[in-house]
Design a protein that fits this description.
globular, 6 strands, six-stranded antiparallel β-sheet
Length: 127
């Protein structure tokens, strides 16, 4: 878990922490502060997207494959205002080269803030 986060400089820069990472699943946490807010005082959509994207990356790269996103979509449901915020990724299906994931971004009470769907391209990890 720490190794994955050590390799993701942007995630660390934003302030994202891993709660857990296991094959096909991951949960990330962000404690937003003023640098994460947009002009309306809400957590910036880009911060929420980064939180979801990092959960996806951790889940998709936690098993026997390395993976990169080839298509993603995010629907913003409610504004994030206070932390901590969480993104939990789960694998929906996985083939030899393509896998699908869903990521829920929630607040501390489990209220859905955004829904993120992704398709990744997979290949076997090199030793």
């Amino acid at each position: 878990m720490k190794t994955f986060m050590d390799k993701d400089a942007f995630g660390r820069f934003i302030g994202i922490e891993a709660v857990f990472i296991e094959p096909g699943r991951a949960r990330m946490r962000l404690d937003p502060d003023d640098r994460h807010r947009n002009g309306l005082g809400m957590v910036h959509g880009g911060a929420l997207f980064t939180l979801a994207d990092l959960a996806l990356a951790a889940a998709a790269n936690s098993g026997e494959h390395s993976a990169v996103a080839i298509n993603v979509a995010m629907t913003f449901v409610k504004p994030g205002r206070h932390g901590p915020l969480f993104a939990e990724a789960r694998e929906l299906s996985a083939g030899r080269t393509i896998a699908s994931y869903a990521v829920d971004v929630t607040d501390k009470d489990g209220v859905l803030l955004a829904a993120f769907q992704a398709t990744v391209y997979r290949r076997e990890k090199k030793a």
